[in-house]
């Protein structure tokens, strides 16, 4: 304990000295311990994000503005009861506190921003303010990624990965255009992972508990944390429990939860809070099918239904399933031919799959194994979860990026998952101007991430199967060009050929195709990663 | 606790531990990386990387090798640096692709003189580091495509914001003007283009703009006829139509301006490394002033500038007739290209004179025919067989409106700035002001009108100087003349708009691309560019372009590596730059905090003008100074038989003469002289080799 933590502390100090002896860095730069290249990335990304201020914003923008208003104008006892706007507060308390802090400068800048009844307020002040808060809070992510470089085994490789994460198109699309605070949250997650890498597991657990109280979607990752901390922190390698450590970890986590939930516990609002956080009234698929296992299954059901309709057959067809062609309605997806899926089923499958990886983690509780298991936990939840949103793919892509430099096999997995994952986020933006931005930006990002990594990590295939699989994967990746062309051209063609109305009725086809094509890649990458993890 | 930890280390995370030790080792090795990186790169570096190498300086081809006793004959220590043993080796061995350019020779000169400067690693901005990184990672072929894609992305994102006159009926702004022209050219017969409802954004650009509008409108009408319906579409605003309009700007930009820039970096910087050429391209691609006006405010200036740059490229490469056509197209797109006309005209006339009575007259006649033919073609629909003779007057009167005031809005030129003290409009009649401004303008661009001719004249008698393109000495004269004439027009001519600063900024940015960071060209170029953007602030603020204004300025300055806060060992110009920026920043702050007093509603624009104008005057003075220097560089040569014998002494003589005459900056104007010396020696050696073959 002593040795590792002191090592973790000396690392930044030595890097500072590293810059102190370098004339190239001005005194200002030394203060932050950043090299000119790192400043470059910060400048570049900030300038670019500033340009995106007037870009399209989803309803999430108004959601967050409303939360600013709620936390600013109402007492804490009414935060989770207010229904002035339809966008009620449904994040855990830390996020509410975070909004409360943000609302203070907001009030100074423009009081109308935090007016509860000023719904859909979209003046320049509120746009500029909220967009700026996203950029500023994302610096947490940047700072953590820098710390990743400082103590890395291969700093140049880690710098590449850190840069690719900081400039990730996922963050650009979801945070800076669509509008959310994922950069900030993933900053905390990666901080926790960094602590695990540096051997400070208590801090890691503490930070993860904090993160959970910011946004509960990170519960997808909780099993890996639980197993890892229990095995590697609370138990000796021989398997005996270390009570002091267990208690310190338990205390740390309890303190976090008390700070977060305490006020609501005292007020007796916990049931109300939980009902806001976990609304169980949604369907299997989101409006746009998230590219997971269920998307493939739903598609298979649709294909089977057509088959049954055409050729009859002895299969009973569920009438309500025929009606529910899941045309973008949030509601229950009912299968027509295949047996129906209930939340319990998805839960069971998720837990079963996760437990396989967790057993492996229990046996090999080291940092790398933990990171892979963490990724796989998130991945499993994404693959089999109930009502998964496509944005949740970030839960997979972010930790997976940290694994990309392990070896060529991991890098290939990373390439396929990232490409499919980023493309699956494209339908999040449907205005043509922003679609052009996301596509071009992603191409640039892919070029400066994949090419140098590939150059450094490339391994010659050792068997015929590897060659064939490599070819198939390349073919799949090349297919994205065709997919994107189709998605772009199809709406124009349908309108040209069949008039304006047709565009609407065929709207689902490009979406469905994107979802399915990405699902294929993501399922394959999932299997790849699982195999890599379990066989190593 | 410690016991448990040791167990952990022993079994569970032994691998982890091993990794950590290697991490420490690699960390210590990486500590030295920045300093040694140039040594690490060297083995893999190829011909094109040459300028990155700090030492030793590559060998010169024996044909260019100076005589061994050259440095010993140097008269005084003060000027010995230019011809010291080390700097005398600076040069570029000729390769098959090698073409002599001014830029390449100036660079070699700069390196020799810059020994006292800061380490090479410190210098350079984001662009340099990025290009270097791309080369290191085996992505050299990706640099230009990614740069083009990135600039398209930045331009597109600039266009996400509002444009000139968005949602401001009844007149809207420049965006509506352009859209309206697309509407009227598509629906009206050609004869009415310049006469239809002039009160509502009548067409006031030459025919090429009209044809361009017609084409855009033609395509747009196929997408959605409502965007360009006659009269009904006035003030039409929708998300899709805006996207279409922005796309037309981007497409025009990528069809004309970007190829022109690319060609420029390959022609003007011929003989320099691919990295430097790419860096120059980056510098030009992200120039904030043009980005803000074309993609934010909404105009098609890049087309006009692109045609002019294409003309420059052709002139430098020696294709004068093609160049003349391109310049005519530039004039035919926007009459503002006339600001360049004195320089271009003088350059071409100079070349005719240089070529002598036979060839010169031939070239002159050809130029005259080609130019007239292109103009005739452009105006063909308004000329007799197709229209009555009076029809030509419609476009002409629209293109040259002398019926307006001496300056329209607040613009950072001489008239508007001095108007604070001298109320010109009360003091003189409009006719007098027109005459006065014309007089001032002519005096302003005298240098640009005379220098190219005289430079060519001085080259007379040098047989074969034209072999292998235009001599490198002439190249900077052309660009400086363009700068001088356009800045004179901007400062002194009648009816200038603040956006017109784009015209002087174009040759200035061309000059600054690839210029060493210690050179005055670079420093002043960056300052003028930034102040140019600042001078358009009132306009940009009206358009809602405040955020792109900040973002693009930051991005570009970071890209080229301009850091005004580097105050250690700062020169006077650098300190002055910092002061100017402080003044700009204070004005912005003031504007943010205080509302202007009711008595002076235009207080901030006027202050803006008062800050910007001195910089532009300084730029004008500098352009005069540098054009004289550039011409001296040509002129400081001895002629006659003496040349043959004292050849090795010649370029030293050049450099000394120039240095004595002007207290030049580190890179100095020795470069053109040397350039000329090299160029001439090269042609001489080529001549002998040809003779040998015979």
Question: How does the SSE layout of this entry go?
Answer:
The complex is a heterodimer of chains A (536) and B (694).
Chain A: H1 2-20, H2 27-32, H3 36-51, H4 59-73, H5 93-109, H6 124-137, H7 139-150, H8 155-166, H9 169-179, H10 182-197, H11 201-212, H12 222-233, H13 243-266, H14 270-277, H15 293-311, H16 319-323, H17 343-363, H18 367-384, H19 394-403, H20 408-425, H21 432-457, H22 464-498, H23 500-505, H24 508-535
Helix pairs in contact in A: 4-5, 7-8, 7-10, 8-21, 9-21, 10-11, 11-12, 11-13, 12-17, 12-18, 15-24, 17-18, 18-19, 18-24, 19-20, 20-21, 20-24, 22-24
Chain B: H1 2-10, H2 14-30, H3 33-41, H4 85-88, H5 102-113, H6 126-136, H7 143-158, H8 174-187, H9 207-223, H10 239-268, H11 274-285, H12 288-298, H13 301-317, H14 320-333, H15 341-379, H16 393-399, H17 414-418, H18 424-427, H19 430-444, H20 446-459, H21 474-492, H22 502-512, H23 520-535, H24 537-542, H25 546-560, H26 572-593, H27 603-635, H28 642-645, H29 647-661, H30 670-693
Helix pairs in contact in B: 5-30, 6-11, 7-10, 7-11, 8-9, 10-11, 10-13, 12-25, 13-14, 14-15, 15-20, 15-21, 19-21, 20-21, 20-27, 21-22, 21-27, 22-23, 23-26, 23-27, 26-27, 27-30, 29-30
Characteristic key phrases:
heterodimer; A: 536 residues; mainly alpha; disordered N terminus; B: 694 residues; 2 domains; 30 helices; 64% helix; disordered C terminus; Glucosyltransferase (chain A)
The pLDDT mean of chain B sits at 77
Structural class of chain A: mainly alpha
Q: What is the overall number of helices of chain B?
A: 30
How large, in whole angstroms, is the Cα Rg of chain A?
24 Å
- Name the biggest interface: A-B, 66 and 64 residues
Number of β-strand runs of chain A? 0
- Global geometry of chain B: globular
| Radius of gyration of chain B, in angstroms, nearest whole number | 28 Å
Helix content, binned percent of chain A: over 70%
Report on the biggest sheet of chain B. Answer: none
Measure the end-to-end span of chain B.
92 Å
Overall geometry of chain A comes to globular
Assembly type of the chains comes to heterodimer
SSE pattern of chain B: HHHHHHHHHHHHHHHHHHHHHHHHHHHHHH
Unreliably modeled segments of chain B: 1-53, 59-98, 112-121, 637-694
Protein name (chain A): Glucosyltransferase
């Amino acid at each position: 304990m002593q040795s590792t933590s002191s090592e973790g502390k000396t690392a930044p100090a030595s890097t500072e000295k590293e810059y102190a002896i370098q004339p190239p860095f001005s005194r200002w730069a030394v203060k932050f311990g950043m090299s000119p290249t790192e400043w470059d990335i910060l400048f570049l990304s900030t300038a670019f994000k500033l340009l995106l201020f007037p870009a399209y914003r989803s309803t999430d923008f108004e959601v967050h503005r409303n939360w600013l208003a709620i936390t600013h104008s109402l007492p804490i006892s009414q935060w989770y009861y207010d229904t002035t706007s339809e966008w009620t507060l449904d994040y855990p308390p830390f996020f509410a506190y975070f909004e409360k802090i943000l609302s203070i400068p907001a009030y100074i800048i423009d009081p109308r921003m935090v007016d509860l009844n000023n719904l859909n307020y979209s003046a320049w002040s509120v746009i500029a303010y909220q967009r700026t808060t996203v950029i500023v809070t994302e610096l947490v992510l940047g700072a953590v990624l820098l710390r990743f470089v400082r103590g890395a085994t291969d700093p140049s490789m880690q710098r590449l990965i850190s840069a690719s994460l900081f400039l990730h198109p996922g963050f650009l699309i979801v945070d800076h255009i669509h509008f959310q605070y994922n950069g900030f949250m993933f900053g905390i997650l990666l901080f926790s992972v960094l602590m695990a890498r540096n051997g400070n597991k208590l801090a890691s657990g503490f930070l993860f508990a904090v993160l959970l109280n910011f946004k509960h979607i990170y519960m997808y990752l909780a099993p890996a944390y639980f197993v890892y901390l229990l095995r590697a922190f609370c138990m000796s390698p021989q398997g005996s429990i270390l009570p002091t450590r267990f208690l310190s970890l338990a205390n740390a986590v309890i303190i976090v939860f008390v700070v977060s939930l305490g006020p609501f516990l005292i007020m007796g609002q916990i049931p109300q809070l939980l009902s806001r956080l976990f609304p169980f009234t949604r369907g299997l698929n989101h409006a746009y099918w998230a590219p997971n296992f269920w998307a493939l299954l739903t598609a298979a059901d649709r294909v089977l239904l057509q088959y049954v309709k055409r050729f009859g057959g002895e299969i009973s067809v569920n009438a309500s399933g025929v009606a529910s062609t899941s045309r973008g309605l949030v509601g229950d997806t009912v299968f027509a031919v295949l047996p129906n899926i209930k939340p319990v089923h998805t839960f069971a499958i998720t837990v079963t799959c996760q437990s396989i990886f967790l057993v492996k983690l229990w046996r090999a509780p080291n940092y790398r194994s933990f990171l892979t298991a963490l990724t796989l936990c998130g991945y499993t939840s994404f693959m089999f979860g109930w009502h998964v949103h496509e944005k949740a793919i970030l839960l997979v892509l972010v930790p997976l990026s940290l694994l990309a430099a392990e070896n060529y096999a991991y890098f290939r997995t990373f390439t396929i998952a990232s490409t499919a994952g980023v493309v699956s986020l494209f339908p999040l933006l449907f205005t043509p101007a922003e679609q052009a931005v996301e596509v071009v930006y992603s191409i640039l990002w892919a070029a400066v991430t994949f090419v140098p990594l590939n150059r450094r990590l490339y391994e010659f295939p050792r068997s015929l199967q590897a060659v064939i699989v490599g070819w198939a994967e390349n073919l799949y990746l090349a297919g994205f060009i065709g997919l994107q062309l189709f998605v772009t051209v199809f709406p124009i063609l349908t309108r040209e050929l069949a008039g304006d109305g047709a565009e609407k009725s065929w709207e689902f086809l490009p979406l469905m195709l994107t979802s399915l094509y990405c699902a294929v890649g993501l399922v394959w990458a999932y299997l790849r990663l699982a195999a890599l993890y379990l066989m190593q | 606790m410690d016991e448990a930890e040791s167990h952990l280390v022993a079994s569970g995370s032994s691998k982890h531990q091993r990794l950590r030790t290697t991490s420490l080792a690699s960390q210590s090795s990486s500590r030295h990386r920045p300093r040694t990186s140039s040594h690490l790169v060297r083995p893999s570096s190829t011909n094109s990387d040459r300028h990155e190498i700090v030492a030793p300086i590559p060998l010169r081809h024996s044909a260019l090798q100076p005589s061994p006793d050259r440095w010993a004959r140097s008269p005084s220590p003060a000027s010995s640096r230019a011809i010291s043993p080390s700097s005398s080796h600076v040069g570029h061995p000729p390769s098959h692709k090698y073409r002599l350019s001014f830029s390449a020779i100036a660079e070699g000169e700069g390196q020799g003189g810059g020994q006292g400067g800061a380490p090479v690693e410190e210098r350079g901005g984001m662009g340099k580091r990025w290009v270097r990184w791309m080369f290191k990672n085996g992505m050299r072929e990706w640099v230009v495509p990614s740069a083009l894609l990135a600039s398209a992305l930045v331009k597109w994102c600039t266009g996400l914001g509002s444009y000139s006159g968005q949602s401001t009926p009844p007149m809207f702004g420049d965006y509506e003007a352009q859209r309206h022209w697309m509407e009227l050219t598509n629906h009206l017969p050609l004869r009415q283009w310049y006469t239809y409802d002039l009160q509502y954004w009548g067409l006031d650009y030459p025919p090429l703009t009209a044809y361009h509008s017609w084409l855009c409108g033609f395509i747009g009408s196929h997408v959605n006829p409502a965007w360009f319906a006659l009269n009904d579409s006035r003030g039409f605003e929708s998300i899709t139509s805006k996207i279409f309009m922005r796309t037309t700007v981007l497409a025009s930009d990528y069809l004309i301006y970007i190829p022109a820039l690319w060609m420029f970096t390959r022609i003007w910087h011929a003989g320099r490394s691919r990295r430097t050429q790419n860096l120059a391209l980056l510098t030009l691609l992200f120039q904030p002033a043009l980005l803000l006006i074309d993609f934010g405010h909404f105009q098609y200036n890049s087309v006009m500038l692109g045609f002019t740059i294409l003309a420059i490229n052709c002139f430098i490469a020696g294709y004068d007739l093609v160049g003349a056509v391109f310049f005519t197209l530039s004039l035919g797109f926007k009459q503002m290209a006339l600001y360049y006309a004195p320089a271009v005209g003088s350059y071409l006339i100079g070349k005719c004179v240089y070529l002598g009575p036979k060839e010169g007259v031939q070239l002159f006649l050809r130029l005259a025919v080609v130019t007239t033919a292109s103009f005739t073609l452009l105006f063909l629909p308004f000329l007799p067989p197709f229209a009555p003779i009076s029809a030509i007057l419609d476009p002409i009167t629209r293109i040259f409106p002398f019926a307006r005031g001496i300056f329209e809005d607040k613009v950072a030129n001489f008239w508007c700035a001095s108007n604070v003290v001298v109320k010109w409009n009360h003091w003189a009649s409009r006719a007098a002001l027109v005459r006065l401004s014309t007089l001032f303008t002519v005096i302003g661009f005298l240098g640009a009108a005379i220098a190219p001719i005289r430079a060519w004249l001085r080259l007379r008698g040098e047989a074969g100087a034209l072999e292998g393109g235009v001599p490198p000495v002439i190249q900077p004269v052309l660009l400086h003349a363009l700068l001088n004439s356009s800045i004179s027009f901007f400062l002194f001519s009648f009816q200038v708009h603040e956006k017109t600063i784009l015209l002087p900024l174009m040759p200035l940015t061309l000059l600054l691309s690839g210029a060493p960071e210690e050179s005055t060209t670079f420093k002043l170029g960056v300052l003028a560019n930034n102040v140019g953007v600042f001078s358009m602030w009132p306009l940009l603020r009206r358009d809602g372009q405040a955020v792109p204004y900040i973002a693009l300025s930051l991005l570009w300055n970071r890209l080229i590596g301009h850091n005004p806060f580097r105050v250690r060992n700062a020169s006077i110009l650098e300190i002055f730059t910092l002061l100017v920026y402080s003044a700009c920043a204070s004005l912005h702050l003031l504007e943010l905090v205080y509302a202007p007093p009711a008595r002076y509603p235009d207080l901030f624009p006027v202050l803006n003008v008062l800050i910007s104008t001195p910089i532009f005057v300084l730029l004008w003075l500098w352009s005069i100074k540098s054009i004289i220097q550039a011409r001296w560089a040509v002129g400081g040569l001895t002629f006659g038989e003496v040349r043959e014998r004292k050849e090795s002494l010649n370029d030293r003589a050049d450099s000394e003469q120039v240095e004595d005459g002007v207290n030049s900056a580190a890179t100095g104007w020795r470069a053109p002289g040397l350039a000329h010396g090299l160029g001439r020696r090269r042609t001489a050696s080529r001549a002998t080799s040809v003779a040998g073959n015979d």
